[in-house]
Amino acid sequence: MDQDDAAYRKSVRNMSVILAAVVITVLAAIFVPPYVNPVHDVFQSPVSYDSPFGFVMHLELNATSVPAGGGILLTGWINSSSSSIEQVNASDSWAFDQAQLWGKICTSGWPIGVGLMRGHYTQDNYTLGTLISVPRPYAACPAQAGTPSDFLLRAHSSEALVTIGGTPQLWVLQSSLAFGRDVSGNPLSPGVYTAVLADEWGDVLTANFLVT
Fold this sequence. Notes:
Layout: H1 3-31, E1 47-50, E2 55-61, E3 65-66, E4 72-80, E5 86-89, E6 112-118, E7 150-153, E8 159-164, E9 167-172, E10 174-179, E11 191-199, E12 204-211
Parallel strand pairs: 3-12
Antiparallel strand pairs: 1-2, 2-4, 4-10, 5-7, 6-11, 7-8, 8-9, 11-12
């Protein structure tokens, strides 16, 4: 083997090692859970998302950094983006288990919900996360006549006219959740968390905060 051939083979081996290292780094960034390898970012609140269904989703946190054992207030709502009344048919295309989201007590067919995941997730990879179980107060809810078949969104408003069992009602499509402990009573431990707002049409909006 001459010197040129040996140098070429050495160059190929070095390049293979470099490429393997790059592949491993990329795969780790994708698949290692964000709470193990958190993404460092400047967290923003509020955030918004233009849904293709004729409204804008909004998610607001009362802080982007809270002390360990402290609490966070998540508020999510939708606003019509139309200058006239917009009719949106009801759906059941939740991106999450609806039972793990906080909507509105004693209101069947409520179309939005907020929740929380441990780790840094975005709208591109939220499916990798798991919602933290939300403590739910006991409520003896009266029987409801049914659920809305559609929502008549007022122009540039969160108000929606719905009909339940033949009776019209005016709903303000906003949900809030004050979160300081999980369902077992444990306080939020230090790390990055992701708040989510989801709707029954499959839209998801995320915002992040840090527990120090």
